[in-house]
């Protein structure tokens, strides 16, 4: 029933050889479409097409590549409403939030349009007598991106504009939950003039992921998703000799100091905790109140949570949308139950929420939990739902210790008026991305995105300068042009100058 989503290979849709799976609307629980899942043969065909296309694409001038990327940017802007509506239907997020992720994804495309600057090599004249040295950055070949459900446009955009601009072919394996945006992007790349086979989409689950990670024609794998799958992809693809960057899950803490503007901190933490129902890798599921900040913060955050309107993503009055699946909703309810059974206080309880007219949707209301032990799984694990756990500590040093006790290290924030504590915070936390009075410190497209510890496996962060390094490899060239009649005595010593 509904629409059909197929693979995008060699410039057109095809069903491939695998099975199918339903695409669901999280706000209604209804099946809206059918997704064709690939298998090893689908992957093999896509890689062969990509390998052929890449050989020609690498020869295309930087000027022409840049023109295509500029045209792609215009097309993405023209089609933003259409893509946002598709994302909202399949993911559940509000249309405004979907437009926001498209805009953030376009930052990386904009960064990639200046690839002419980033691919400049170095040159040194006369490094030895009559000898020059220069460097080249060259593409890797066929690159792969495996992406999560929570940002079906933005996260793939962290990868493919940079991979393509640097002369690679790119195969996207998006989440099975919200696959349609990727096919729309493929059509727009075609309209922008990108040669067939340079950008392709193969849908599927573990079979396709493992086939991509081990295919001999693939050079590099970028992954974004949960930590266990990031570890799996990093292990399998590394063992097969691929370059790998695998970004994993998170459990981001926001520290609220007593000198902070508490009303401001509460409104920012609320947007971090409950925006997109907490289904963001840079969400704020933990607030750490320091000393006297606790009481005022609890009052302010409870007021923020209780005023939020929960509803379907296509209703303009909705603040907080449904979760992605019934299983995700059940997990949030179970983890709240378990915290309560362990003696925690449920300050705001979203478990019983029903959205009228959407009784089969995956809705749960904003939930705030406090008085929870620091070793309880509802605090230590990634809940990935609209649940804020508030931990209370006595001083700044205890706050740092708590932040650093998490095995994850994606993002963190501090709310304070003190430059002294802000400076110590950014120095002492073992986390990749830090916000000072900013709750979701997602770096702009021309910086690089990446966490530490169990939030990233591999050496490179995503997009920005590290993206260029990831998708290219360097050659160092040493050049000498002796005169036709120049004669030099041969020497067996190691040359020094
Ligand atoms: P997921 O790990 O379940 O899926 C991610 C990708 O892996 C999907 O394409 C999926 O098809 C594939 N996959 C799933 N199970 C697999 C398996 N057993 N073997 C091989 N491949 C498999 O993640 P999700 O639920 O789609 O997304 C949410 C997670 O992603 C959260 O943990 C969130 O923190 C994380 N995330 C991290 C970042 C970051 O930048 N670090 C950004 C966005 C999301």
TrEMBL record:
<dbReference type="InterPro" id="IPR015590">
    <property type="entry name" value="Aldehyde_DH_dom"/>
</dbReference>
<dbReference type="InterPro" id="IPR010061">
    <property type="entry name" value="MeMal-semiAld_DH"/>
</dbReference>
<dbReference type="InterPro" id="IPR016163">
    <property type="entry name" value="Ald_DH_C"/>
</dbReference>
<keyword id="KW-0520">NAD</keyword>
<dbReference type="GO" id="GO:0004491">
    <property type="term" value="F:methylmalonate-semialdehyde dehydrogenase (acylating, NAD) activity"/>
</dbReference>
<protein>
    <recommendedName>
        <fullName>methylmalonate-semialdehyde dehydrogenase (CoA acylating)</fullName>
        <ecNumber>1.2.1.27</ecNumber>
    </recommendedName>
</protein>
<dbReference type="InterPro" id="IPR016161">
    <property type="entry name" value="Ald_DH/histidinol_DH"/>
</dbReference>
<keyword id="KW-0560">Oxidoreductase</keyword>
<feature type="domain" description="Aldehyde dehydrogenase">
    <location>
        <begin position="19"/>
        <end position="477"/>
    </location>
</feature>
<feature type="region of interest" description="Disordered">
    <location>
        <begin position="1"/>
        <end position="24"/>
    </location>
</feature>
<dbReference type="InterPro" id="IPR016162">
    <property type="entry name" value="Ald_DH_N"/>
</dbReference>
<dbReference type="GO" id="GO:0006210">
    <property type="term" value="P:thymine catabolic process"/>
</dbReference>
<dbReference type="Pfam" id="PF00171">
    <property type="entry name" value="Aldedh"/>
</dbReference>
<dbReference type="GO" id="GO:0006574">
    <property type="term" value="P:L-valine catabolic process"/>
</dbReference>
């Amino acid at each position: 029933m509904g629409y059909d989503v197929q693979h995008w290979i060699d410039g057109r849709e095809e069903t491939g050889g695998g099975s199918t799976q339903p695409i669901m609307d999280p706000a209604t629980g209804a099946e809206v479409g059918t997704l064709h899942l690939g298998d090893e043969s689908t992957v093999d065909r896509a890689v062969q097409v990509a390998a052929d296309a890449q050989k020609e694409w690498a020869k295309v001038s930087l000027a022409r590549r840049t023109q295509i990327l500029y045209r792609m940017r215009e097309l993405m802007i023209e089609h933003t409403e259409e893509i946002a509506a598709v994302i909202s239907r399949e993911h559940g997020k509000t249309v405004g939030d979907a437009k926001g992720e498209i805009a953030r994804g376009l930052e990386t495309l904009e960064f990639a349009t200046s690839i002419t600057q980033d691919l400049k090599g170095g040159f040194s004249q006369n490094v030895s007598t009559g000898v020059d040295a220069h460097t080249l950055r060259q593409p890797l070949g066929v690159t792969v991106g495996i992406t999560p459900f929570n940002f079906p446009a933005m996260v793939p955009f962290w990868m493919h504009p940079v991979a393509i601009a640097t002369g690679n072919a790119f195969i996207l394996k998006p989440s099975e939950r919200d696959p349609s945006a990727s096919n729309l992007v493929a059509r727009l790349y075609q309209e922008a003039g990108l040669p067939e086979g340079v950008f392709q989409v193969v849908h599927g689950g573990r079979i396709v992921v493992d086939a991509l990670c081990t295919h001999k024609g693939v050079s590099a794998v970028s992954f974004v998703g949960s930590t266990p799958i990031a570890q799996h992809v990093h292990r399998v693809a590394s063992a097969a000799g691929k370059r790998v960057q695998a970004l994993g899950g998170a459990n981001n803490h926001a520290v609220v100091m007593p000198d902070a503007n508490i009303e401001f901190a509460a409104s920012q933490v609320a947007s971090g905790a409950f925006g997109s129902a907490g289904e963001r890798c840079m969400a704020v599921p933990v607030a750490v109140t320091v000393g006297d900040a606790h009481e005022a913060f609890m009052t302010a955050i409870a007021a923020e949570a209780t005023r939020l309107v929960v509803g379907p993503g296509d209703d303009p009055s909705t603040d907080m949308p449904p979760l992605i699946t019934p299983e995700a909703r059940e997990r949030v309810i179970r983890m709240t139950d378990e915290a309560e059974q362990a003696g925690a206080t449920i300050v705001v309880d979203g478990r019983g929420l029903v959205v009228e007219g959407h009784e089969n949707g995956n809705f749960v209301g904003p939930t705030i939990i406090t008085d929870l032990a620091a070793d309880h799984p509802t605090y230590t694990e990634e809940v990935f739902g609209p649940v804020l756990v508030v931990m209370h500590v006595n001083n700044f040093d205890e706050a740092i210790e708590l932040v650093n006790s998490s095995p994850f290290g994606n993002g963190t924030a501090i709310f304070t008026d003190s430059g002294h504590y802000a400076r110590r915070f950014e120095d002492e936390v073992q986390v990749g991305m830090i916000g000072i009075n900013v709750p979701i410190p997602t770096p702009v497209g021309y910086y690089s995105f990446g966490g530490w510890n169990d939030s990233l496996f591999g050496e490179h962060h995503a997009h920005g300068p590290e993206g260029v390094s990831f998708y290219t490899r360097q050659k160092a060239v040493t050049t000498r042009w002796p005169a036709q009649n120049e004669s030099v005595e041969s020497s067996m010593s190691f040359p020094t100058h």
